[in-house]
Amino acid sequence: xxxxxxxxxxxxxxxxxxxxxxxxxxxxxxxxxxxxxxxxxxxxxxxxxxxxxxxxxxxxxxxxxxxxxxxxxxxxxxxxxxxxxxxxxxxxxxxxxxxxxxxxxxxxxxxxxxxxxxxxxxxxxxxxxxxxxxxxxxxxxxxxxxxxxxxxxxxxxxxxxxxxxxxxxxxxxxxxxxxxxxxxxxxxxxxxxxxxxxxxxxxxxxxxxxxxxxxxxxxxxxxxxxxxxxxxxxxxxxxxxxxxxxxxxxxxxxxxxxxxxxxxxxxxxxxxxxxxxxxxxxxxxxxxxxxxxxxxxxxxxxxxxxxxxxxxxxxxxxxxxxxxxxxxxxxxxxxxxxxxxxxxxxxxxxxxxxxxxxxxxxxxxxxxxxxxxxxxxxxxxxxxxxxxxxxxxxxxxxxxxxxxxxxxxxxxxxxxxxxxxxxxxxxxxxx
Length: 431
Known about the structure:
Elements: H1 11-14, H2 30-41, E1 46-50, H3 57-68, E2 71-76, H4 83-93, H5 95-99, H6 112-131, H7 143-153, E3 155-160, H8 167-183, E4 192-196, H9 202-205, E5 215-219, H10 225-239, E6 241-243, H11 245-255, H12 259-272, E7 283-285, H13 287-313, H14 323-334, H15 341-348, H16 357-366, E8 376-379, E9 384-387, H17 390-400, H18 410-420
Parallel strand pairs: 1-4, 1-5, 2-3, 3-4, 6-7
Antiparallel strand pairs: 8-9
Helix pairs in contact: 2-3, 7-8, 10-11, 10-12, 11-12, 12-13, 13-17, 13-18, 14-15, 14-17, 17-18
């Protein structure tokens, strides 16, 4: 990799738990990387990128876009957002390309006609907003018109968290994507890239059979132990620090394949140690530093952990079985990290002899979705289920287990569980 140490590395740019990693970016598995690069290069190919929250989808995409595209625009979808609002957001973000007298790059040239049209539509939208309490999409701003605006800037359009929009709006997104496909004859770089959660890939393409051959569905898996280790090694070189081998193993185990958790723990360790820039003299980080980092992570993430748990166990109506809680309790009682469908069912039937197999199958699938907080994950190769990460598992155990003393504070209970985890991680030697 070479020596990356320099005086300009900021710890908040090296370890980036809440934003795409650039300095410490780790190339993903060749198959995922190649699939994404190929899809970005094929004219007219639209992309659906999906995977678990925190698995590094946005980081991977942004780094590849920076390598292959002149420009890109990101719209962050939110719960309750309509396709009209999404179109307006994309339109707004094109403003810098259509109001500058001099183009940012010689790679594209916007016609005077389109600039006048853009300014006219912008004026119409602003006038409507002054007269009403909401911004209204003017009839002139069609998906076709938007594709012209994007095409002339050679921008691709990234829609983050598209799974958050409701079903009817996803149908509209499918229609917009199809228009962008057709417009790629005139604008080869024109592309919509929808980023979504696990099991969300087909939410767009299922509405139009013509799209199936022109949408690349790319699954971004959790990181391997080696990939997580590379994040840590990159950080060591960039900041001139050294994590003790057992600390590296603890970080990898606690991250559970999620680069966002790895970044968070490493950042907490550095800040706790007063490391904000590349050090002139190397410094070691030990197990005490890791424990402080975990404590800080749990405290800062308590609301998130609570939200995941509450999503997982919510019930829309009274049922004979409280399925989510029954399943999660059974998984905790077995005291293994990874479990088969049969093992979970056998454990449940020790208390509920008539518990239906179909209930378990249905809710195990549900507990992997964003609607249920993605509290569980499923390894297709091994055929085993597990909690999404040790912190989620520990929080769930704190809430559901009667064995935990009520006098303990929440984070102390979680820390105790994390500390008790057996570290069985083998970190490959990195070249």
